[in-house]
Design brief:
five-stranded mixed beta sheet, single chain, 3 domains, CRISPR type AFERR-associated protein Csf1, alpha+beta, 10 helices
């Protein structure tokens, strides 16, 4: 189960104070390292001895928390329960749900975990994880709104070439070779266009002329089949504007577009 992998990874990653670190930026755009301390379910006052199957994951447990102590009144994912008749939630699933007074909870962070480590990547770091996934088994969750409980809905992956990520509540199959090609195209496209334009297909005419009509048509031909799909959403979530000497003229854009192998 993904929650058990994540919980185990957290226990191996946290320091003696229960803290793990996240690279992020402050309100002024300065890079900072933030200390993140999640709720330790085994230290929670409502954790108690209980033998049975977890309400959420269905796994057997020796300790758990009553449903009313874990879920708020606005929780709506009751249909996700693997054991609907269960009365308690296991520590691993509790970890994925509980939130601290400082509003730190797993749902507020994109995360990657394998058997050895739990990471809370920013978008630049998540891009690298998707291009070079960690050793399996691993899970990848992209928290777009930072409001959804997605950890218990994810999938544990055993391949680095074809794997599933959670984009909010949507499982998205990533074929790594195809992902790399589309990401390369989109990141070159970002030199001349905004993410909104690429996502919607509604472009500024001036930017098309500046980029070069032939080059734009060549790029659009490869991106268009993915528009409106969660696969492109994942690409756009992590894509970064990459500049190099090929961006200096329309001819350079066209050469780049023409040498890209077709995606479909």
């Amino acid at each position: 189960m993904p929650t058990h992998l994540i919980y185990s990874a957290w226990k191996k990653t946290k320091d003696e104070n229960g803290v793990i670190w996240q690279n992020t930026k402050d309100g002024k755009g300065n890079e900072i390292i933030r200390n993140i301390k999640f709720v330790d379910p085994m230290q929670h006052k409502d954790m108690e001895e209980h033998t049975g199957a977890c309400f959420l994951c269905g796994k057997q447990m020796t300790h758990g928390m009553k449903l009313k102590k874990v879920f708020s009144n606005v929780f709506t994912d009751w249909n996700q329960a693997k054991n609907p008749s269960g009365t308690h939630v296991c520590p691993a699933c509790c970890f994925s749900i509980l939130t601290t007074k400082e509003r730190y909870g797993l749902r507020t962070f994109s995360n990657v975990a394998n058997e050895e480590h739990l990471w809370l990547p920013n978008r630049v770091e998540m891009r690298e994880f998707l291009l070079r996934p960690p050793d399996p088994p691993f899970v990848v969750n992209l928290a777009v709104s930072q409001k959804k409980h997605i950890a218990f809905k994810g999938e544990v992956n055993y391949s680095r070439d074809i794997f599933t990520v959670m984009y909010e509540e949507m499982p998205v199959l990533i074929v790594l070779k195809k992902f790399k090609k589309l990401l390369t195209i989109v990141e070159h496209f970002l030199y001349g266009f905004t993410k909104t334009e690429i996502t919607t297909g509604e472009y500024s005419q001036k930017r098309i002329l500046d980029f070069g009509i032939d080059a734009w048509e060549a790029f659009e031909e490869q991106v268009k089949p993915y528009r409106g799909t969660p696969f492109l959403d994942v690409v756009m979530f992590v894509a970064q504007r990459i500049e190099n000497e090929e961006h200096s003229c329309n001819e350079g854009n066209l050469r780049f577009a023409q040498k890209r192998a077709p995606l479909v």
